[in-house]
Amino acid sequence: MTAVVSGTPRFTISPRRKVVNKAMLGLCVAAATFAVAVLMWIFGYVIVQGARYVNIDFFTNLPAPVGEAGGGFLNALVGTGIMVGMASAVSIPVGVLAGIYLAEFGRSWMAQVVRFINDTLNATPSIVAGLFAYTLVVLQVHRFSAIAGSVALAVLMIPTITRTAEEMIRLVPRTLRDAALALGIPEWRMTLQIVLPAAASGIVTGIMLAIARVSGETAALLFTAFNNRFLSFALDQPMSSVPVQVFTYAIAPYDDWHHQAWAGSLVLVSLVALFSAAMRIATRNRHRMRA
Amino acid sequence: MVADSGMVSVSAHGERSRSFRRRGPRALQGWTSGDALFRKVCTAFGLAIVALLALLLYELARGSSLSLSRFGFGFAFEKVWDPVAEKFGAATFIYGTMVTSVIALLVAVPLGVGIAIFLVEMAPPAVGNIIGFLVELLAAIPSIVYGLWGLFVLAPLVRDHVAPFLHATLGFLPFFSGESHGVGMLTAGLVLSIMVLPFIAAVSRDVLAAVPQPLREGSLALGATKWETIWGVVLPYGRTGIGGSVILALGRALGETMAVTMVIGNTPQIVLSLFEPGYTMSSVIANEYSEASGPLYLSSLTELGLLLFIATFAVNGTARALIWRMAHGPGGRA
Known about the structure:
The complex is a heterodimer. Helices cover 71% and strands 0% of the residues of chain A. Chain A is globular, with a radius of gyration of 26 Å. By secondary structure, chain A is an all-alpha fold. By secondary structure, chain B is mostly helical. The radius of gyration of chain B is 26 Å and the shape is globular.
């Protein structure tokens, strides 16, 4: 003991270790800076390019022929609205009820299997969802249709909503449930009238985010809803959508169309950025964000 | 209460006695039978998820049955893709998918783990929150927007600066031979790397945040530097979860379609040079499906989709299993 006390405390780190420490930590900072810079670059570019061409015409006009100014995305915006609406009408009830199942009755092995499959389906490539809707719908009626597009989008939405609903319902405090049950109401009413309303804001935000994301889905719609140059409300006919329109314009060799593609991209990016921020605020105090 | 009384008749006898055991008083029986119904309805919707998977597999298998019976297992190894002669092989597309995914991971894994380290070990909470959100925002940008940006911004940059630089410094490797025309496998891989970065960063961040604080303190107390603590203690503890995040990112990279389609050049070939254009499984489906004529052509494209789905499902399942194990058991066990 005395040796330790009397000796000079020697606690030195070799220069090499210091340098390695600084260098590696510096690289981690650089990685984060790089990611933020790339995000800013993409956002900035889309905003600068898109803002010049987003105007009233963009929202109220149909596509103009090449060379004519003033074309818009009206048909695509309406198409995206209709198809995402139909997909939501199916996937919201399915997703929320499946989410309730996982959250409230989710301890059995069967629920574990459902949860695992749901998580894995959540990462289904959107092109595969498109193929599925093609063989299920388009092949049967031999025509591209808005219905087929909605089916593809619903396949992509259901696992996302299920997952969000489960997570949000799980966040409702145990005490709330106990209080409800202690007052004598049955479990099903406790779930529907106490737990679900308590989780509602998170679930709704999650659903909005899911909607914003499928609004930008292209691959699932390419050969299901296809595209339509005209304003169409017929569900059994091809229908335009914002992302497919952007794709069509982007790969065409005309500058006018490229401008339109940037404008469409800006609309899509604004949508997801807005709802991502809303989601962040809704879950602010519980940031256990899992991928 | 009125609504409940109607539910009594729905419940089977077994249900009632079970809920009686659970709840006790006889007066509550009528209420709990509503529970049984509610539970059944929810379970049915839960099982709908399983049914969805079964239907997906069934439809894809049905759609590709013609190609499956004509080409068998050879489909995956055949290089020729000639719709006119009705000869279809997937090898060039599988190669393109693998090469672009590998590039994406090589770039994104160090970056993503670095970001996670910064967020958990270094950044003050406020800064970490903001940067964490911005990185997650990268995951929300639609694929088509990445494609547009890749085509008009990144591809010219690769052609004029990145590729010449790589050729000048590493040109002795076959991967960097020849010259780039902008679109090609390298550009596609780089776009993909940005797209999968948030998945690696977000999951790794959660994994590192779950590493117990005493481990760090113990290491620092033994005289290790901060980096030595991270490298020698924190990362090994979280390696299972980080591995899961990498595999998760691989699953995304394999299936990504639009952004890749727009920048890879869409040429079915197997060449070593990354500057050359290529073609991936998802891109060929996206490009040719709506114009495919003839049942065998369609069926071959559908089989590509089936292979892609099985591959991504297996990869994502593995990732989930790893991340779950990390969440449920002690991390360093793997």
